[in-house]
Design a protein that fits this description.
By secondary structure, this protein is α/β, with parallel strands linked by helices. Helices cover about 40% and strands about 15% of the residues. Helix 1 (about 15-25) packs parallel to helix 7 and helix 3 (about 55-70) runs parallel beside helix 4 (about 85-100). It starts with 9 loop residues before the first strand and ends in a 23-residue tail after the last strand. Bound molecules: adenosine-5'-diphosphate.
Length: about 575
């Protein structure tokens, strides 16, 4: 120590990382301990942060990502080096793809050995590995830079289009010792981490005049709209404009699915027929058939509200881009509608939508009313829908192929940011990570509606759910396989077909191993009883729901993406 005025008190990298996170009101870390970050997790807990330990880093990462989506604060995932980092990287990439703010913090091996490839314990050039999958990637090499490094990571995760940030912490950084006062002064509190971005007035005017001339307008709400937490303004925009709307799956509940203006039950019709479509935080990616082709039918013009200018014209020409944060953009459009003499849409348009909705809802009601034995997706989901209707505050996690497709349209949502699913990639494996993240973040119950195949990716996290006594009820739609359980090995050999699982598996026994409550249900009545009881208990529970093993189509509704089923009906 050369400066005689420095205090004798010292701090180190471990303490500064925890201090920097707490200084920015981050109170929870999702992770999995090991060299070199075990003491970091211990210290975080000792300093009053919540550390939620997982059995696999991917699920810790997914929990962090969904926490970020729910709160607009980056969710933190902490992992060990190389393999632990790579496991977490899947979740980081998924967060970036879905525009969820998270920070993956990984310990790493010594730089000088990694860079010369001399074979260190868990050696890997993690920073460069992370770069293609993260919105931003940083490494901190000096303890006095921890404050600024964490601040940079937070701002990168939440400003503009949110995404996943990688933060590399070499083992020797954590052990570095510096003067405590110097350390305290190096901390940075991020001011206005996600600044509002006000749309340009001429862009708003362009959008308003296009909307004014529309004969068959449609609003499409995406999960960007849900993320933005501009719920009241979005609702006012929809209701005061009188324009029918469609929610993308994670935007369900932004307005209650039972809302009179929801066109969900006439989705194909409105997409094909609309002439002007207002996209609010939704991308024209594969989930929206790239904005073209048969799905979109008649020629149309798009107004697109998004925070990311390069999203515009990514698939089709956008007639009226409105760039800014959703709250500011929607408010500007709303002001224009209020003052600009915009009439309500032509009753011929809204009337024809209502007619189709009625027809489709009647058809669906008839399907849902059937009581086949064994249960099928519809009869099981009918029970779940009716129970969840009484608890609009419950978080719903949903993944699978058929289980995802059917639940998305059958389970109504009533409140914003309560539905978490396979998202932009349409992936399997988010189930238990999202469920844990949602339960920890909201303190409210979670019902995870899972295909048996999808559940398998994160099933071991049942132990995590039980360890933290989280109010998560997992429902397994058990039809003995991927898509269904009836495929056969054409050779007649001993191995089962690639899509087939153990028949009549008892997933309910898995949770019992960790002290949770298991249910085995075979009828809609048993489902109603089990789910009602599990939610009321507020304890970890798993319902093994036996579904007809012939129910379920190959690739669910994605047959057009599967080379073997494309073109077949
Ligand atoms: P969905 O899958 O529901 O259609 P996407 O994830 O495709 O939704 O689209 C979300 C869009 O929302 C992204 O293009 C993203 O840039 C945008 N977005 C996210 N947050 C905001 C915000 N606060 N303001 C404006 N746009 C946002």
């Amino acid at each position: 120590m050369t400066n005689s005025t420095q205090s004798a008190e010292q701090t180190d990298g471990f303490h500064l990382v925890v201090d920097a996170l707490k200084h920015n009101d981050i109170d929870t870390i999702f992770g999995l301990v090991g060299i070199p970050i075990t003491d970091l997790a211990r210290l975080a807990q000792a300093e009053g942060m919540r550390f939620i330990g997982f059995r696999h880093e991917q699920h810790a990462g997914n929990a962090a990502a969904i926490a970020g989506y729910m709160t607009q604060k980056p969710g933190i995932c902490l992992t060990v080096s190389a393999p632990g980092f790579l496991n977490g990287l899947t979740a980081l990439a998924n967060a970036t793809t879905n525009c969820f703010p998270m920070i993956l913090i990984s310990g790493s091996s010594e730089r000088e050995i990694v860079d010369l490839q001399q074979g260190d314990y868990e050696e890997m050039d993690q920073l460069n590995a992370a770069k293609p999958y993260a919105k931003a990637s940083y490494r901190i090499n000096k303890a006095e830079d921890i404050g600024i490094g964490v601040a940079r990571a937070i701002r990168a995760a939440v400003s503009g289009r949110p995404g996943g940030v990688y933060l590399d912490l070499p083992a020797q950084l954590l052990a570095q010792v510096i003067d405590a006062e110097h350390g305290r002064r190096s901390l940075v509190k991020v001011v206005d981490p996600a600044p509002r971005q006000i749309p340009a007035p001429d862009a708003v005017q362009r959008a308003l005049s296009l909307l004014k001339g529309a004969k068959k307008p449609l609003i499409l709400l995406g999960k960007g709209a849900a993320y933005a937490q501009a719920d009241a303004d979005i609702r006012a925009f929809v209701e005061e404009s009188g324009i029918p709307y469609l929610p993308m799956s994670m935007a369900k509940g932004l307005l209650p699915d039972t809302h009179a203006q929801s066109a969900s039950a006439a989705r194909s019709y409105v997409l094909a027929e609309a002439d002007v479509v207002v996209l609010v935080g939704a991308r024209l990616n594969w989930l929206l058939a790239h904005g073209k082709g048969k799905t979109w039918g008649a020629p149309k013009q798009f107004i697109q509200i998004d925070i990311s200018p390069t999203e515009i014209d990514s698939n089709v020409a956008i007639a009226a881009p409105v760039i800014g944060d959703i709250g500011s953009c929607v408010t500007a459009l709303l002001d224009g509608i209020r003052s600009g003499g915009h009439g309500k849409p032509d009753p011929a348009w809204t009337g024809s939508i209502a007619e189709r909705k009625d027809k489709n809802l009647t058809k669906m009601a008839a399907m849902l009313a059937q009581n086949p034995s064994p249960m099928n997706f519809h009869s099981a989901l009918r029970s779940i829908r009716d129970v969840l209707k009484t608890r609009p505050d419950i978080n719903v996690v949903n993944e699978g192929a058929n289980t995802l497709d059917f639940a998305r349209s059958i389970i109504d949502m009533y409140e914003p940011r309560k539905r978490f699913d396979s998202g932009t990639w349409g992936i399997m494996g988010i189930g238990m990570g999202f469920a844990i993240g949602a339960a920890v973040t909201s303190g409210k119950p979670v019902v995870a509606i899972e295909g048996d195949s999808a559940f398998g990716f994160s099933g071991m996290e049942l132990e995590t759910i039980c360890r933290y006594e989280l109010p998560v009820t997992t429902i397994i739609f058990n039809n003995n396989g991927v898509y269904r359980g009836t495929d056969v090995n054409p050779t007649g050999g001993k191995d089962v077909a690639p899509t087939v699982f153990v028949k009549n598996a008892r997933y309910d026994k898995m949770i019992e191993a960790f002290g949770g409550i298991g249910y085995h249900v075979t009828t809609p009545e048993e489902m109603t009883r089990a789910l009602t009881e599990a939610i009321a208990a507020g304890k970890p529970a798993l319902i093994n729901a036996v579904i007809d093993e012939t129910a379920g189509t190959e690739s669910g509704r994605l047959t057009n993406l599967n080379p073997s089923t494309a073109g077949k009906k």
